[in-house]
Amino acid sequence: MIVTYRTQRKVRFQHCDPAAIVFFPRYFEMINSVVEDWFEDEVGASFNQLHMERRTGVPTARIATDFTAPSRLGDRLDFELTVDAVGGASLTITITATCAGELRLRSTSTLVYVDMNTGKPMPWPEDFRQRFEPEHNTGKPA
Amino acid sequence: MIVTYRTQRKVRFQHCDPAAIVFFPRYFEMINSVVEDWFEDEVGASFNQLHMERRTGVPTARIATDFTAPSRLGDRLDFELTVDAVGGASLTITITATCAGELRLRSTSTLVYVDMNTGKPMPWPEDFRQRFEPEHNTGKPA
Amino acid sequence: MIVTYRTQRKVRFQHCDPAAIVFFPRYFEMINSVVEDWFEDEVGASFNQLHMERRTGVPTARIATDFTAPSRLGDRLDFELTVDAVGGASLTITITATCAGELRLRSTSTLVYVDMNTGKPMPWPEDFRQRFEPEHNTGKPA
Amino acid sequence: MIVTYRTQRKVRFQHCDPAAIVFFPRYFEMINSVVEDWFEDEVGASFNQLHMERRTGVPTARIATDFTAPSRLGDRLDFELTVDAVGGASLTITITATCAGELRLRSTSTLVYVDMNTGKPMPWPEDFRQRFEPEHNTGKPA
Fold first, then answer.
1. Which of A48, C7, C139, D117 could join D74 in a cystine, given CB atoms 3.0 to 4.6 angstroms apart?
2. D35 in the Ramachandran plot: left (φ > 0), alpha (ψ -120 to 50) or beta?
3. Is the CB of residue C58 less than 8 Å from the CB of residue C107?
């Protein structure tokens, strides 16, 4: 599976702790914003459309992250998102952030597509699924 | 190893997203605050003492979290922290949050004790180590 | 008008910037949390009841804040909330934070009671209004 | 005085509250980030240079904000920063945010240039001052 999405984030004052490095919860805001931009730019629905119009959500069920080197105020982080596996209502992705080629974090998370009114998982729409699996869109759940 | 620390957090407006459930990066702020209180209440150094007086830090090197059920505005979360393993400069802990007995998250993280000036790992002070391993204080690295 | 509510907040790692003092947007999270606790403890409706059950909200229409001295990691802040004025659908309050008697901030804000579905202002419920103006209802100052 | 700086921000999931509108403390993160970009792009020092290299800071001493209309998930906000007055060690600016021409907020704040080691105010460097007052660079403090 070779879906890759790239975007950049600047390490801002608001991200940094008293050691002047990124406070790790702020990385998760960045990671969420990368998923948000990917949905809007590539998957085909903005988070406003997902949440407000379709009344669906993509909560994170599991996320595991290695922080391999600290990031400092002013650093430009190159984020890369790759799809690992697509299930009936789930999606597993890996996001990395590097700065000038140095790996800063690698995070693998599983999102679930849910009906916001009931909180229950629901199948991915077919057009989303096609964007998740561009190469071999076999509908085979991972 | 049976070090356990318990504390409570209220799910506040600032933690909640447009679905009125906790936005997952906010959980990591709560998790960090639990570690902060544990250091102050049990380990023997507040984060102010750690960072400002000793010029040390405890950055998170790895964290893996399962979110098993959503938390809603106003929920009281019971957090429980357990020490899993103590290394020369590292510490692995598991934190759970439950609400009225229902598991909301289970998170395992590895912290590293570092010199804030150099960013290099350094051995845990002996008094910290004793608080991490109260039962069998053998100094045996995990 | 003599409604006063008091509560305390600890300056946490998550509040502090690379200068190891509170980053000012974090003060507004604390201020909001003070209003939230005041509603739950004294006014008679938690934010969950307000937002989820009554489908109302209390957005901030205006807030002016003087930051008179910096707050540092580990400081205990004493917050005090006083009602300045009550309008048909609005409420003006002043919140101060002090640490060991030193004023850290003084903030005056105007909240508006709104219907969350329409976003339109609506009159305060009579029981709320009585808690805002205790001395010309029951006369008993809180 | 006619210094104006413009930039845009997208209203993200992380900014929104259970009413699906921007939670007001998040606006202050956006406002701070606008000042940060202005310093880097126009004034001539990034926040990293200011804080880490020069060991100076620009804490906010006072900020007053009117929130005139709510902003929703996905809105594109046009921020505009104007210099109101320059003092020896202070700077008063007004920032507005509009969306499709509708005013969302107007915020006036006073920043102070401080030595991070002592926390004391210090005079603006001459090159900064010139960028604050491009039209009539008289050095006359406001």
1. A48
2. alpha
3. no
Contact yes or no for D16 and B13 at CB 8 A: no
The tokens of A100 are what?
A: 């000038």
Is position B142 within any domain? no
Residue B33 to residue C12, Cβ atoms within 8 A:
yes
Instruction: For Cα atoms C97, D97, B17, give the angle at the middle one, nearest 5 degrees.
Output: 65
Question: What burial letters (b/e) apply to C63-97, b meaning 16+ CB within 10 Å?
Answer: bbbbbeebbbbbbebebebebeebeebbbbbebbb
Q: Can you say how many angstroms the Cα of residue B8 is from the centroid of all Cα atoms in its chain?
A: 13
Q: Is residue D80 part of a domain?
A: yes
Closest Cα in chain A, distance from residue B20 (Å): 10
Among left, alpha and beta (phi > 0; psi -120 to 50; other), residue A62 is beta
Q: How far apart are CA B3 and CA B82, in angstroms?
A: 6
Question: Chain C to chain D, count of Cβ pairs less than 8 Å apart?
Answer: 63
Amino acid in position A140: K
Distance between CA atoms of residues C53 and C118, nearest Å: 15
- Touching partners of C (3+ C-beta pairs < 8 Å): A, B, D
Please give the Cα distance from C26 to B12 (Å, whole number): 14
- Strand A4-10: give its sheet, edge to edge: A4-10, A76-86, A90-99, A102-112, A60-67, B60-67, B102-112, B90-99, B76-86, B4-10
- Least Cα distance to B72 among B117, B32, B15, B28 occurs for B15
pLDDT tens-digit series, residues A101-126? 999 999 999 999 999 989 899 999 99
Q: Which residues of C touch B52 (CB under 8 A)?
A: 20, 72-73
Any idea how long chain C is? Answer: 142
State the CATH number of the domain containing residue D11: 3.10.129.10
pLDDT tops 70 at residue D140: no
User: What would the DSSP string read from start to end of A55-78?
Assistant: -EE--EEEEEEEE-S--BTTPEEE
Number of domains comprising chain B = 1
Q: Which residue has the tokens 């000042």?
A: D35
Whole-prediction pTM value? 0.94
Instruction: Give the domain range for residue D111.
Output: 4-136
Alpha carbon of A73: minimum distance to chain B alpha carbons (Å): 15
User: For B54-58, what is the mean pLDDT?
Assistant: 96
Predicted confidence band at D19 (pLDDT cuts at 50, 70, 90)?
A: confident
- Domain contains D103: yes
Q: Is residue B118 part of a domain?
A: yes
